[in-house]
Each structure stands twice: as structure tokens, then as C-alpha cells.
Amino acid sequence: MTNERRVLVHPDVEGLIAAVAARFLTKLTDLMDEYRDVNVVLTGGTAGGQGVQHAIATSPMRGAIDWSRVHFWWGDERFLPAGHEDRNETQAHEALLDHIPVPPQNVHPFPDSDAVPDIEEAARVYAAELAAHADPALRLTVPRFDITFLGVGPDGHIASLFPEHDVRVDDDRLVIADRNSPKPPPERLSLTLPVINSSQRIWMVLSGAEKASALGLALAGASPIEVPAAGAQGRRRTVFFVDQEAAQDVPQNLIASSY
User: Which keywords are on file for this protein (predicted)?
Assistant: First the structure.
């Protein structure tokens, strides 16, 4: 098994989104030749979340995918009522899930605050859902996440794991509940870094000059406590998909020519 880390740079955010969506659909086809079912972890945010999801939903390539064999999960969620516009789940339905024939039982959102009012219990419920779909062949306590999408904040946060926060990124639980997030809303649920790093492939999508510093620190090997994105490492591959503005501080020798 290889474990590669690379940076792919695109001229602008529109090209970035289109390229990630096309790469995802191509990789999904390859994975279906290898596995009966494929597990994908979605993220929130503008480019790597709604942008890529909308591009997937509107791509002519989507018709070649047997969506009944794809399971969707989330890396984190805002603990809000069902259907709230700020929930990553709501945004993913609007951008992608409502436009593809994926069975409802293949969609695995974090509990909303209507269904499970206590956030700690909501974390336990999602941990149990993960464990119920664990892949024993890989000795995992969670599903075999084939592709995990992550956005990266200007501060270097991924999912709802924030720098130097009292909820530690290296927590050994499957799911953490945060009642005091430094980014609103204050109540959030998140996969932990060990669970994220159990993914076969981690795809981080960054755009804009405000992400350049976080990308540079992540590539320089900063502490995951200080820059959570630096600690994200897929078992097979870790890819930073970025636009030219986000890549302004990346040395040329770190930029790959292809996936």
C-alpha cells in the first residue's frame, strides 16, 4: 500500500471545482470495479463542499455511476434542527443528493438537534452508526472511507477540529461533541483525526489567498494541534486540490503535474 501526498494547482476556483468533480467521478468508477460498495465522506464549505457537489450533480458523467452502491457520510456537522440552511447535510441535499438516485438508506447524516436533543448523545448515535458499517477486513472500527473530502479554513482547521482548542484533534473517540466551537454555531459534531486518517484517500480542497498560509503550514509539517490540516493523512493518498491564489506560497518542487 502506498501513501502519497501531493499538491495539484488549478488556475482559478472554477477550474478547481470542475477538475475535482471530474476526478471524483472517474475515481468512483474505478473503485466500483474493486468494491461492491463505496464510502464517501462529504464536507461543508463553498468550494470543496457545495461547489464540487453541484459540479458532480450537473456533470454528464454522473449517469455512468450506480449510485445505489455509494454511501455518503459527513466529516462534521453543525448541531442544528433538521433542514436548517447551515447544516452541511441540508446543503449537500440541495447541491447533490436530491439530484442523483441514491437510496435514502445510503445517506448517513449526523443526528440533528430535533431528533437527538442532547449533543453528547448525538455523538454516541453517530459513532454507533459508523461502527455498524465498519470494515472488519481492514480491522477498522468505522467504514472503509474510500474518499474523504475536507475543506481547510484560513486557520488550518479541518472538519470541526480547530487549532489549539479545548477539544483536541487527537481525541481517540470516533466522534466528538463540541459545545464551545470557536466558529459559530458553537455546538458541532465532528469525526476525530484518527477516524479521518483511517480514510483511504483524503482530498483537501482550498481556494483563495486567505488559505495560502494554512496550506503552507500544513505542507511544512506544522503540529496538528496548531494546524489540524497538517495532521490529515490518508492511508493511500492525500491530495491538496488548490487554486493559484491558495498555492502562492507553495514551492514549485512540491507541486505535482497530475493526480
Answer: Hydrolase
The domain spanning residue 207 has which CATH number?
A: 3.40.50.1360
Enumerate residues 6+ apart whose C-beta is below 8 A from 246: 206, 207, 208, 209, 211, 212, 215
| Residue 226 domain boundaries | 18-30+37-55+70-240
Q: Is residue 124 part of a domain?
A: yes
Single pTM value for the model = 0.96
Count: domains in the chain: 1
Pairing of strands 188-191, 175-178: antiparallel
Residue 250 located in a structural domain? no
Span 33-79, pLDDT tens digits: 999 999 999 999 999 999 999 999 999 999 999 999 999 999 999 99
